[in-house]
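Handoff note, outgoing to incoming analyst
You'll be picking up this chain. Sequence as last confirmed:
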Amino acid sequence: MTSRVDFYVLDSSAVKQRWLFACRLVEKAYLNDLRVVILADPADAGGLDDLLWTFSERSFVPHELCVDGRADAASPVHLAVDADTAPAADLLVNLSGRLPPRLERFASVAEIVDADAEWRRLGRERFKSYREQKLTLNTHQPGDSGNI
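Most recent structure output, in case you need it:
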């Protein structure tokens, strides 16, 4: 059962900043022994896959790209393009522009919203949907520094 949704509102409108913030967030969750699913649009999955290995010179996030619905249960982090076939997890990081289905499989959700007008509009729609579901909502404004 999803207990909370955290919205991280970034100052930048650059997609790469959103992705880098997501990598740092996922790394923090991974280091805290949380199981994570990253939901991405199919066009973004390859770039995010590469970035999770290379975003930091001092670390990387071991993960599995799960595009065909198959997932290795031993992997702590899954990068998925379809939330319906992604495994259950402690944290869902939503990098898609849509509301994820079957939220009950995730203990918490992280939404990363940047300054791009369309991305912000979609984020507001998801915020309203989560509020209608009576989920606990939290908003954080880390700026471009990426502090989590």
